[in-house]
Amino acid sequence: MNWILLFEQFLNGFQLGILLFLLAAGLTLVFGIMDLINLAHGSLYMMGAYFMATFVGWTDSFMLAALLTLPACLLLGVVVEVVTLRRLYDRDHLDQVLATFGLILFFDEFVRLIWGPAGLDVPLPDFLETSFEILPGVPYPTYRLAIILTGLLIALFLYILVTKTRIGMRIRAGASNREMIGALGINIQMLFTLVFGLGAVLAGFAGLMAAPIFTVEIGMGANILILAFVVIVIGGIGSIRGAFIASLVVGIIDTIGRSFLPDLLDLFLDEVAASTAAPAISSMMTYILMAVILTFRPQGLFPPRGA
Amino acid sequence: MTLSLRTIVPAAVLVLLGLVPVIAGAIDEPFYIDLFSRMLILAIGASSLNLLLGYGGMVSFGHAVYLGIGAYVVGIFSFHSVEDGIEWMASGYVQIPAALIASAVFGLIIGAISLRTRGVYFIMITLAFAQMVYFLGVGIEYYGADDGLTLYGRSEFGDWLDLNESSTLYYVCFVALLLTLFVSYKLINSRFGIAIRSIKSNERRTRAIGIPSYRYRLTCFVIAATICGFAGALLANRTDFVSPDMMHWTRSGDLIIMVVLGGMGTLFGPLLGTVGFLLVEEILSSYTEYWQLFFGPLLILIVIFGKGGIDGLIQALANLVERKPKAAAQSRDGA
């Protein structure tokens, strides 16, 4: 086995895990606090990527476009929350699934109308399109490294925000007892909008960082959203720590599985069978992992307290 | 019991559906047979999902998987019957039972794991399993992967039943739908059905009176999967084609929409919902290519304002009709 390749794939998996974490953190916060399943979270990710593509076209600057994309995502998130989701907090999960499914249909079609059915590419600026020698003789793309570092910083920021600040205290209080903090005179509606906006910014951020690596296309949100669901189910719904760990595990297993499973299967099966089975099995691996974990821990690895 | 509007409307819809081939023949628009046979098949799928959603309180977000499995069994059997010359595999008498068994087995495995979880976990895990089977379909090059598999021929039932005749296929679907409705009716009013409904309204109490809820729910899950697999086998015959797209997660979403749109937990709700959904799709998409731009918000409005779906609407109408004479009488008395 090629150790350098393994290490590179490990980093790639780590980087996918970081993107997943940005999505999963928003999902799990929104679920933990508002008790809302938001299928349209993937649409916010997609919109982040499309905003990014547009702003890069306008400003011709990657950083400036990124700075424009984040407030745009915040605004979009707040609008979505105020217009539709606010009405769904006290509904059952089925209603929430349906309504946010409606949002997905809307956003997908909206994107098709505005940007057209073809995918877009976001070019990287020169200073990020280099590679960095992480180990002697092992270059790794700077941009991917930047994603990993930014993601880790955001995770740290979230950790401090949730555990050390007043807002974070309210968020945690909201997660454990909504009525109570309302009774204590906290404006819950404001808090909910804020949390949703935060989730939208995180999703948009994941989208804008993913834009140069993946093609910006319709439906890009749905695929990663389902992976993010797997992540929060494995991690325990409502737990940011669980989301962080599960994101990295899923990202790494998925990436390494895809690149090494064919070789691994070659050891046991003949070449034809291995090359047929490998793509099918590797795309199923994360789901198998989830099934195994849920069989032993139906509440995920870090079940929320009080649940 | 007098005939209520809630019985008359579905009965009328069924009669109209039964007449579709005749009408389509009369106005020389065979296209309609195709459109409506899809409606019948999806109504079977939606009815099976209703057993879970409406009666069992199990929000499965991966029900389209069984459509895909049923369809793939037919597709794969047809493939081998020609490619490997195994004649018996072309027979519908083999294909249909195989499709039922395959979807029951998948239902058993997926259900056994998923039903250990509750609430949102259940929604997401059924979704994830569906996605897993979807990727399995996408991954298997041998059976066409992404591009799917074109059927070499429809299921063969001998000379008396030729599915290549589009109106014959249509009536097969129609009878299958009637059968599904009948089985659902029998099921939900049986002891088993009462137990399932009781688990939905209060699982702890149901367990306390000695009903093993897990086993009951799992049985219900497998039954629903099997019926949906049957619909899938019909769907493969109707489209002459199977592809992973049939079990894409948005298809599962569509099935949920049909059930909720028609009225969850009512016998005819899924049928009405399917008819409504496909008609709205057909009408909106004839006006604009971007029909989902309108359908999405419409769905949100239905969720927020429309409780009880079409069935609830009919009920409200019926109440209005019944109350009117009374109201009139009252106002006369008052005057």
Write a structural description.
The complex is a heterodimer of chains A (307) and B (335). Chain A has helices at residues 3-34, 41-59, 62-83, 93-115, 142-164, 166-176, 178-183, 188-210, 220-235, 240-268, 271-296, and strands at 131-135, 138-141. With 307 residues, chain A is mostly helical. Chain A has 2 domains: 32-124 and 146-217, no CATH class; 219-307, no CATH class. In chain A, helix 1 (3-34) packs antiparallel against helix 10, helix 3 runs antiparallel to helix 8 (188-210) and helix 9 crosses helix 10. The radius of gyration of chain A is 20 Å and the shape is globular. The termini of chain A are far apart. Chain B is an all-alpha fold and 335 residues long. Chain B has one domain: ABC transporter involved in vitamin B12 uptake, BtuC (Orthogonal Bundle). Chain B has helices spanning 5-26, 31-55, 64-83, 92-114, 119-139, 166-188, 191-201, 203-208, 213-239, 249-262, 269-287, 292-305, 309-334; strands at 149-150, 241-242. In chain B, helix 3 (64-83) packs antiparallel against helix 4 and helix 3 crosses helix 9 (213-239). Chain B is globular. Chain A binds chain B through residues 31, 37, 84, 87-88, 91, 93-95, 97-99, 101-110, 112-113, 222, 226, 229-230, 232-233, 237, 276, 279-281, 283-284, 287-288, 290-291, 294-295, 298-300, and chain B through 53, 59, 61, 113, 116-121, 123-125, 127-129, 131-132, 135-136, 138-142, 249-250, 253, 256-257, 260, 264, 290-293, 295-300, 303-304.
